[in-house]
Design goal:
about 5% strand, about 500 residues, 2 domains, mainly alpha, three-stranded antiparallel sheet, Fumarase C, Chain B, domain 1, two-stranded parallel ribbon, 20 helices, single chain, Fumarase C, Chain A, domain 2
Length: about 500
């Protein structure tokens, strides 16, 4: 499909489609008209009194007036000097999202760049040209200065880009697809660099992934409930309604649907000496649900940011060009830190469920570590070590980045958001959580198989069946890492969810 970029109306799904799906993007006529109208305002102001970003220097050099004959040089110099990032390159999907979102802000008509600048940005993503953007350089105010400058540098035909899988000079990549470098004029260098588009792009990708993971967390937890011969009574709707958090209700509803008709659960309803299950089982809807509510808050922040014009100064329809603080990434940084905390705890409770499954004193009759011949074989023992290491990593990543402001630019930028760091670590938490759930799923499926002749519910059985198409069941020890990685990829691809929902219908 082709995404028609009007400025307003961009969705998280649009960002994912461009970043990962390679969808083509074109500007609407309305966006072009808004760009042209804002540009006309900037050109009028260029002839008058000094205006920040139009006829002055930047940051702490804002008091320096720039003569007309040097203003184009000023914009190019801004891009070159700000392209000062270091470290490994940021993922291509992030750079593509960042380019698309910067074009989105320009298309809102509050930045004063010409239509050709937005079109040049979209030409990069449409032609598979991805600028090399180093990881370090953004403090989240004034936005993602260094990362966006590396993108803007490519528009000038400078710097390094990835094209056809290779790192090449930007000028050569542009020429190879019939594009030419552009020359920036007043305000355009600033308009290309003064935004939170890298932060927002990563947050869009993270919340998209997290939404799928929280459904998968319920699926995997349901498998573990069966594996441990636990009860589903704590998930009853009337009990859950006594604490009416929406995320908790959704998670408990999922668990009830997933476990509906389970012969394993039914087998011990009336003759089980255990009075109640451990917290890691019984409190699953409360923990998963709290994470769902946190995610819903972050979705709201993300959607509002997708409707926002992020730049400084802003070009207003009445002809004013006013400085503001819309580039500050605090709303995104706070949201990313909050979600990292919540997802870290989803991983933590999964680790506790996994450990219980592997411990013969707590797993209700299963072999130690689910091993075929305990002692000779170690079963899933070291899988739990791997999960513990990722949980520990997630705890470190859950420490907030957004409280760690450091002043820059000669104290002009004396409070910054650190939102780039917040969302970078959020993406790591998301990846670690997927791996944690993958290990729990492999272990729970093995444990459910060991409960034969008792059978799982139809829905959880579908999850086991989808896994068994790629990962073998119980047996002697074998090379475990590839199986765990295969399970991770099945979760990433959504294959397990798809198999389960063929039985349950769409889960929350």
């Amino acid at each position: 499909m082709t995404i028609r970029l009007d400025g307003p109306g961009v969705t998280i799904e649009d960002v994912v489609a461009v970043a990962r799906g390679g969808e083509e993007v074109v500007l609407t006529l309305g966006a072009i008209d808004r760009l042209a109208a804002a540009r006309a305002i900037v050109e009028r102001l260029a002839e008058g009194e000094p205006t920040y970003g139009v006829s002055t220097g930047f940051g702490s050099l804002a008091m320096v007036s720039i003569p007309p004959e040097k203003r184009s040089e000023l914009q190019a110099s801004l891009v070159r000097s700000h392209a000062a990032g270091m470290g490994p390159p940021v993922e291509s999907e992030v750079v593509r999202a960042m380019i698309f979102l910067r074009a989105r802000t320009l298309a809102l008509g509050a930045s004063g760049a010409r239509p050709l600048v937005a079109e040049a940005l979209l030409a990069l993503v449409n032609n598979g040209i991805t600028p090399l953007v180093p990881e370090y350089g953004s403090l989240g105010a004034s936005g993602d200065l260094a990362p966006l400058a590396h993108v803007a540098l490519a528009l000038l035909g400078e710097g390094t880009v990835y094209h056809n899988g290779e790192a090449v000079a930007a000028a050569g990549a542009l020429a190879a697809v019939g594009l030419r470098p552009i020359t920036l004029v007043e305000k355009e260098g600033l308009a290309l660099t003064n935004g939170t588009d890298g932060i927002l792009g990563m947050l869009c990708l993270a919340v998209h992934d997290a939404a799928g993971l929280l459904t998968q967390a319920d699926i995997v937890a349901a498998l573990t409930v069966e594996a441990l011969m636990a009860t589903d009574r704590a998930f009853a709707a009337d009990l859950q309604a006594l604490r009416p958090h929406p995320g908790q209700a959704a998670s408990a509803s999922n668990l009830r649907r997933l476990l509906s008709g389970s012969p394993i659960i039914a087998s011990h309803r009336s003759d089980d000496l255990r009075v109640q299950d451990a917290y890691s089982i019984r409190c699953t809807p409360q923990v998963h649900g709290a994470a769902r509510d946190t995610l819903e808050h972050v979705f709201g922040v993300t959607r509002r940011e997708l409707a926002s014009a992020i730049d400084n100064p802003m070009v207003l329809p009445d002809g004013r060009v006013e400085s503001c603080g819309n580039f500050h990434g605090a709303p995104l940084g706070f949201a990313a830190d909050f979600l990292a905390i919540a997802l870290s705890e989803v991983g933590a409770i999964a680790e506790r469920r996994l450990d219980r499954m592997l411990d013969r004193t707590r797993n209700h009759g299963l072999a130690p570590f689910l091993a075929a011949d305990p002692g000779v074989h170690s079963g899933m023992m070291i899988g739990q070590y791997t999960v513990a290491s990722m949980c520990a990593h997630n705890r470190r990543l859950a420490a907030p980045a957004s409280v760690d402001s450091m002043p820059t630019s000669g104290m002009q930028e004396d409070h910054v958001s650190m939102a780039w760091g917040a969302v970078r670590k959020l993406r790591l938490v998301v990846d670690n959580l997927r791996r944690i759930l993958a290990v729990e799923m492999v272990a729970a499926a093995r444990a459910v198989d060991l409960r034969a002749p008792l059978e799982p519910a139809e829905a959880t059985g579908a999850a086991v069946g989808a896994l068994r198409g790629h990962v073998a069941g119980p047996g002697p020890d074998r090379y475990l890492s590839p199986e765990l990685q295969t399970a991770e990829e099945l979760l990433r691809a959504g294959s397990i969810t798809e198999a389960v929902e063929s039985s349950t219908g769409r889960l929350d």
